[in-house]
Design a protein that fits this description.
The structure holds two protein chains of two kinds.
Chain A lengths: L1 H11 L7 H4 L4 H37 L3 H12 L11 E2 L2 E2 L4 H20 L10 H20 L6 H41 L3 H8 L1
Antiparallel strand pairs in A: 1-2
Helix pairs in contact in A: 3-4, 3-5, 3-7, 5-7, 6-7
Chain B lengths: L2 H18 L12 H17 L6 H45 L1 H15 L3 H34 L52 H5 L9
Helix pairs in contact in B: 1-2, 1-3, 2-3, 2-5, 3-4, 3-5
The chains are: A mainly alpha, B mainly alpha.
Chain lengths: 209, 219
């Protein structure tokens, strides 16, 4: 019995290398926190995209209800990103929306793409889809625009909005992972800065003495 | 100056200057084209110089920086420009709109008349407010531009940042302020010749034979 016990202790003293799977081990709690953060970033993006869309619709509504200062501010703000030609815009309450039909399509498609993103792709993924999908999605918009300019095809509000929506929805597949990656990067940097700012243990020990 | 900041600065100055020049800035009416291009330019320049694969997050960061620089330039330029040439530029835009739609032109003329009769303080406040709004929009769109720039220009494939969400930062050091001597791993036990019975449990090995008499608790 004694002999057996001694034999066991000599065995346990030998160096056993950890399995390679343990080297890349990330605690479950850290994974859960990262997932929660990803959902928060996605939620913020949904709110942002839907809010942007809401402001586009709010501009004509404000003008129709005689909130002229609000309407003017909104039209001016969106004037920085769109030509706002009334002949190329959808109307609400007798007033044109704050952006043209193509831009509305892009923003609506983007909002829809962001909203549906978790159904299409995992929020854990930070890599971007292949670039040819983006170029392919931009093709209908480009063709619609080019044929319209060349006079070969009289594009309509619907064609502008639908081709724009396709581009916007595909763009969401590139923007969401990028912002998720940016979020995790910012957090990692903050954690590193906190760690660097912390005094070493020996200093604390010296102070206590 | 770091490579990242240099790229962002070039992209930001480009988008800021192009968005400030009258008439040239009209290109921004096409989905903020100059701003998107400025963000994408920052990403492109950084990708060209970077030895490793650039991630989408880095692209967004570059676009954000470029947008901040460009937004700052826009703020600095557009406020005095609005005060000095605001009326002249509005007149030109009014003529353009009158040619396209007389009804809209009439409405715009009414708005401009109201603006012209505003006191200078109120007008300055309005211009500053609009410029700040433009700067915020510039930052948002430049971030998108930087992100899309990575999607378009980064052709290298690799592990950097790709695959899955970044792992959390490494745990803090565990030496607790000990001298920084390199950690020496414990020396492995000397190699022993294989036992005839493959070291099965209870078998007597060479080390067991040489071991001192047992000093542990008796069974």
């Amino acid at each position: 019995m004694n002999k057996k016990g001694q034999h066991g202790s000599s065995r346990s003293s030998s160096l056993i290398p950890p399995p390679s799977s343990l080297l890349g081990y990330v605690p479950q709690s850290a994974r859960d926190a990262a997932e929660v953060r990803a959902w928060v970033v996605w939620g913020a993006l949904v709110v942002g995209a839907c809010g942007w869309l809401g402001l586009i619709v709010a501009a004509p509504w404000a003008r129709a209800h005689e909130h002229e200062a609000v309407a003017q501010a909104l039209y001016h703000a969106f004037g920085a990103v769109c030509h706002q030609l009334p002949g190329r815009s959808f109307y609400l309450a007798g007033e044109p929306l704050a952006v043209c039909a193509r831009c509305l399509g892009i923003y609506a498609g983007f909002a829809l793409g962001v909203l549906c993103y978790p159904l299409v792709r995992s929020l854990r993924r930070a890599d971007l889809p292949a670039r040819h999908w983006l170029l392919l999605a931009a093709l209908p918009t480009g063709v619609d625009f080019a044929l319209g300019v060349a006079g070969l095809w009289a594009n309509t509000h619907a064609s502008r909005a639908l081709t724009g929506a396709l581009l916007g929805a595909v763009m969401a597949l590139y923007v969401v992972p990028g912002l998720l990656d940016l979020g995790s990067r910012v957090r990692a940097r903050r954690a590193a800065a906190r760690l660097a700012a912390r005094p070493p243990f020996s200093t604390l020990e010296g102070e206590s003495r | 100056m770091s490579n990242k900041f240099k790229s962002a600065l070039i992209g930001g100055v480009t988008l800021g200057v192009l968005s400030s020049i009258p008439f040239v800035s009209a290109v921004n009416a096409c989905c903020c084209a100059w701003v998107l291009l400025g963000g994408a330019l920052a990403s492109y320049l950084y990708i060209k110089e970077s030895p490793t694969r650039v991630t989408a997050g880095e692209g967004a960061q570059l676009g954000l920086l470029a947008g901040a620089v460009g937004g700052g330039i826009l703020l600095l330029v557009s406020i005095p420009m609005g005060l000095l040439f605001g009326d002249a530029m509005s007149g030109l835009i009014l003529k353009l709109f009158e040619n396209m739609s007389p009804q809209l032109g009439e409405e715009m003329r009414r708005q401009l008349e109201i603006q012209r009769h505003m006191p200078l303080g109120a007008r300055l406040t309005q211009i500053i407010g609009y410029s700040i709004m433009n700067a915020i929009i510039t930052v948002i769109f430049a971030t998108l531009g930087g992100l899309l720039g990575v999607a378009l220009f980064e052709k290298r494939k690799g592990e950097t940042g790709g695959g899955s969400m970044s792992a959390p930062p490494p745990p803090p050091p565990t030496d607790f302020g000990a001298p920084t001597a390199p950690f020496a791993p414990p020396t492995p036990p000397p190699a022993q010749p294989p036992a005839a019975d493959f070291g099965g449990f209870g078998a007597e090995t060479e080390s067991d034979k040489n071991a001192p008499p047992d000093s542990g608790p008796a069974a």
